[in-house]
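Onboarding guide, step 5: your first structure request.
Type a short instruction followed by the sequence, for example:

Predict the 3D structure of this protein.
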Amino acid sequence: MTKRNALIEQEEPFGARLARIRTEAGYSQRVLAREMGISQRMIAYYEGETTHPPTHLLPVFARALGVTTDQILGIEPLDKIKKTRDNRLWRRFSEIEKMESKEKRQIMQFLDTFIENTRLKRKAVSA
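The system replies with structure tokens like these:
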């Protein structure tokens, strides 16, 4: 057995690690499943009943949770988990970039209005 395999086996099981990462990232099983486009039952299965990681879903899990596949597998230590909510926001921005120009302008106008209102509220509170 190599050192790498020994390290993986000494760590928590895959499902427990996945559940911990998901929880620390602020996701419920249902919300993570929706983000990934899979069922909540699949998330529950991978977190509890299997010791074999779903290789075809590892990159999807990593992207959604803001970690690397090596971190999910326990090969690399987990750094402080990035704020997944920010990752979710950036994924939405990526979707907006794919929209038609007219739709993008409408979203930008809405965002600009919202941001300006927030700035005005902050100024009013601090004054």
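Each response can be followed by summary notes, for example: The domain at 3-82 is CATH 1.10.260.40 (434 Repressor (Amino-terminal Domain)).
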